Amino acid sequence: MRVFLTGASGFVGSYTARALLAAGHRPRALVRDPGKTAKVLAAIGVAAEDVELVPGDMLDAAAVAEAMRGCDAAIHTAAAIGVTGPASPGSRLSARGRPFASPGDSARAHLAPPRASASSAEGQRSAGGARPDLLQVNVRGTRNVVGGAVGAGLAPVVHVSTIAVFVPPAGPVITAASPLASPRNDYGRSKLAAERYVRELQDGGAPVVVVYPGGVCGPHQPTLDALMEGMAGALGRMWPLPPGGVSVVDVRDLGEALARAVSAGRGGERWLLGGHHLTWPRYADLCDSLTGVPCRRLRVPGGALLGAGTLLDAAKRVRPFDYPLTRDAAEFMVTLVPTDDEPALAALDLTLRPVRETVADSLRWLAEAGHLDPRRAGRMAPGGKERLTMPQQTFARRAFGPLMTRVSGARWFSRVGPKIVPPLDRALHRASGGRFLLGQALVPSLVLTTTGAVSGLPRTTPLACMPDEDGSWVVVGSNFGREKHPAWTGNLLKHPDAQVSFRGRTVPVTARLLSGEERAEVWPRLLKVWPVYDRYVERVERQLRVFRLTPR
């Protein structure tokens, strides 16, 4: 099937082109800059010659009609975004001059201070060099592409909207039947106008399919913006934690969904694809577990955020200025609820990849591309696994490491240490709110809470650990080099579900005893973290139990 496509130089559009090719379709892409598009496609492994690139402007109805001649179906992913832009009429699309993006990115950079307003899929300018306004792009562009495709007999015609049209939501779950919102800014009004136009076509029997993505995340974003820009900024500076949450959909899954829609869609469908819904603290916890570096956090009351957005909107009406927070953006952060994706997933026979995989790939790419400081990317940065596994060469480690290694490996310490170290660690852990342990200046440390094998009561144990690349922790039942296995290892064998407190955050985990090749692989790395383990092995006849603690 030959499929007409807009936005191929953008985030969603480029992955859609790749998915169309993989499905055996022949994409024909309307693009402003074929050279730029070729580079974007090459970054995700698509040869430009495999996609028919047609120079043109989606605001030019004649050019659109000519480009879609001979096509069987259409996918419209290009749009202007600007949920954080000024609320006043006639406002600019973006002070950055990046007015276009895939609609799934819209309204998605809620992690202030970064901006969410505009990313470029098309780099569009109207005649005379002036930027077209949002209404012109999102409504006129939609009329030219979606309306033009319907008029030309293409079927189906897939229009990519956004879950923003339903926010603030009317219920605890957004469904395709949820009422549309009443946005305040130009971007929201333009998207709503385009949405109503497309729905009118559907109501008239046109073979139009509407897809509503959530926050789009993944590697190789052509121009950093929206959710990806917000994530980099929050990790690099401060992560605000208001009520509410964010919906995360992998750009690769979204591209696959749109490619499948040209075969599965018959017209009239309205498919939500918000993705995985995370509260802001859970999203921050996920990033922390992947990087191994705790982000700086700031709890923000929902009312304060909404009030600030309202005041800024009012100020922008008096004198337009560029600032990333608006009332609409604040409502997104505070009120977003999960979306009902099951109808879309069933119809498209699609399974979304785990959100952990999506965020990990995104963080890894952000670090590789230079958008995220390697110190904040931690184990997601190039070479980060080694940096996170090995204790940092701090002054304390250089000055006291050799001495503590000798002391900890001494036989007399196996009698004294268990009576002194764990009680001190528990007290320090409580006093510091879970952020500090006695030995963490020398070796990564955590507090493990298990369920007693006999008593069934919670038992807490401070332990040295090795943070691993996948966000798990590896711990050793050394018991200070004594002959018996420590009690906590027996607790885990009977009750694998436990809880880890690591650098101020608490994570539910499942424990698994390592053996064979898996144990042999981690043991040399454990010795680099704490060489004393080798002394313990020489001293005892038992095999030290090694567990991997994986976040649930």
TrEMBL record:
Protein name: Deazaflavin-dependent oxidoreductase (Nitroreductase family)
Gene Ontology terms for molecular function: aldehyde dehydrogenase (NAD+) activity
Renumbered residue ranges of the record's region Disordered: 86-133
Pfam families membership: F420H2_quin_red (PF04075), NAD_binding_10 (PF13460)
PANTHER family, sorted: NAD(P)-BINDING DOMAIN-CONTAINING PROTEIN-RELATED (PTHR48079:SF6), PROTEIN YEEZ (PTHR48079)
Entry-linked InterPro entries: F420H2_quin_Rdtase (IPR004378), NAD(P)-bd_dom (IPR016040), NAD(P)-bd_dom_sf (IPR036291), NAD(P)-dependent_oxidoreduct (IPR051783), Split_barrel_FMN-bd (IPR012349)
The NAD(P)-binding domain, residue ranges: 7-215
This protein's GO CC annotations: cytoplasm
